[in-house]
Amino acid sequence: MNYQESREYIDRVTREIPSVLGLEHMRELMKRLGNPQEDLKYVHIAGTNGKGSVIAFLYSALSQAGYCVGRYVSPTLYSYRGRIAVAGQMIDRDSFALYLTQVADAIQVMTADGFPHPTAFEIETAVAFLYFKNKGCDLVLLEVGMGGNLDATNIINNTLLAVLVSISMDHMSFLGNTLSEIAEKKAGIIKEGSHVVTVRQKTEVMEVICEKCRSNHAECTVADAAQAQVVEEGVEGQTIIYEKECYRIPLAGIYQKENAVAALNALKVLDGLGFPTTAEQKKEGLEKVSWNGRFTVLDTEPLFVVDGAHNPAAADMLVQSIEHYFKGKRLIYIMGVFSDKDYQSVIRKTVPLADQIFTIQTPNNVRALPAQKLAEAIEKINPHVEATESVEAAVEKAYGLAEDKDVILAFGSLSFIGIMTETVEEEKKKRKEQQND
User: Fold this and answer.
1) Domain Mur ligase central spans what residues (predicted)?
2) Listed range (34-38, 170-174, 296-300, 326-330) with the worst mean pLDDT
3) What 3 state SS string does 257-288 have?
């Protein structure tokens, strides 16, 4: 297959093969591919919110130290291939097509032998393992897709470090209806004798993690963000003091302090596991981190911020950030959500703060809630809502309504952030041209 054919193959599998949790099919597929994942070492990251940010911090710092680091994340905002990257470069088209062809060939034989067809996520994960092995990665930063214990990424055995970010209620239909049940699944990435770093969690979650560490003889470090102090901040970044060291972080959002502290503790553990980084490399790594779509400023006149808040816990964090950075400001929302998310909770938490809300249907996704249905749900709490036919229309309406000191905030799903960013850039160009006429 060429790259276009490989993408069409993935799209077809996404439509036809439903997502499942379980390792049986993944084990069979990887065995037929020669188990390339066994030749790599891992930092495995699970949790509800903050996985991508912690990986971004680690990826930047470890790369600064000269290690060949692989990164596997999902979803991606701007390029499909961005989910698989090594040494700062996403997988090239030819490599993706090459390894996907190998995986597809193995699947053809596998299904002929009577095994079920792997899911799109399992296929992408297999491609990542093949690519990381071929690139000779020193270490792979591996993000869990959903849950932990039965996620396709949990086929790995060589986990040096498991990192657990904030765990809250999400994917209940797959993971359970209580925090303890969900924590049990996410803590399933903890392997016998591995090291663990967790942020400070709610009591019932900490109990599960501590028990899982005890039963697996895993050494646990609790990264406590309360021990870090923010000494300078704004919508374009913040500076924190942690363990007497000063770190500049070019990411806003009050939750990024916790993610940075988790990453710093992970780096400290890795120091003793054969991957040391100097104090300067840690500082430089955090300062040069790039992770868009998390309370990211797209424009300043007026202020336009995009955030991936898509579940109740993320909505709580977003509200805290709004009240922290934009107290007293007039807020204009652009919202789009997935129908299978707890969007009612997100609505209850966020929409009372808005002066006007424009709803969109997340483009090109079968899970997207129609803009009109979202508007009807919002209207029960805030009547100042209007459904729009596209991202472009919502952005144009928001800009048309906003005055200089107002804030436009787009959120509800990570999936539309790429097109939202492109649309805002086009709108900025158009406005600049109009000013110059």
Assistant:
1) 45-266
2) 170-174
3) HHHHHHHHHHHHHHHCCCCCCCHHHHHHHHHC
What is the rounded distance in angstroms from the CA atom of residue 156 to the CA atom of residue 158? 6
Using DSSP bridges, classify how beta strands 356-359 and 385-387 pair: parallel, antiparallel or unpaired. Answer: parallel
Reported as a single tens digit per residue, the pLDDT across 68-122 is 999 999 877 778 999 999 999 999 999 999 999 999 999 999 999 999 999 999 9
The CA distance from 248 to 236, in Å, is: 11
Helix (H) or strand (E) holding 160: strand 159-164
CA 415 to chain centre: 11
The DSSP result for 328-397, as a single string, is T--EEEEE--BTTS-HHHHHHHHGGG-SEEEE-PPTT-TTBPPHHHHHHHHHTT-S-EEE-SSHHHHHHH
Q: Which two tokens stand for residue 91?
A: 């997988």
Closest CA to 272 of 342, 344, 221: 221
d(CA 1, CA 18): 23
Q: In a 3-state reduction of DSSP, which class is residue 235?
A: coil
State how far the alpha carbon of 166 is from the alpha carbons of 206, 215, 254, 286, in Å: 11, 21, 14, 20
Q: pLDDT by residue (tens digit) across 342-398?
A: 899 999 999 999 999 999 998 888 889 999 999 999 999 999 999 999 999 999 999
Closest to 198 measured CA to CA, from 114, 261, 123, 105: 261
Query: What is the rounded average pLDDT for all residues in the chain?
Result: 93
Q: How far apart are CA 406 and CA 398, in angstroms?
A: 10
- The sign of the dihedral angle between the CA atoms of 65, 294, 146, 202 is positive
Cis peptide preceding 116, ω within 30 of 0: no
Evaluate whether the domain defined by 296-436 bears CATH number 3.90.190.20. Answer: yes
Between CA 374 and CA 361 the distance in angstroms is 8
CATH number for the domain formed by residue range(s) 3-287: 3.40.1190.10
Q: Which of 197, 196, 205, 203 is nearest to 167 (CA)?
A: 205
| For the chain, domain boundaries | 3-287, 296-436
Q: What's the mean pLDDT in 176-189? A: 90
- Report cis status (omega within 30 of 0) of the bond before 302: yes
Calpha distance 230→241 (Å, rounded): 6
What is the mean pLDDT of the segment spanning 287-297?
86
What is the pTM assigned to this prediction? 0.86
Lookup: tokens for 328:
């007293």
- Beta-bridge partner residues of 247: 240
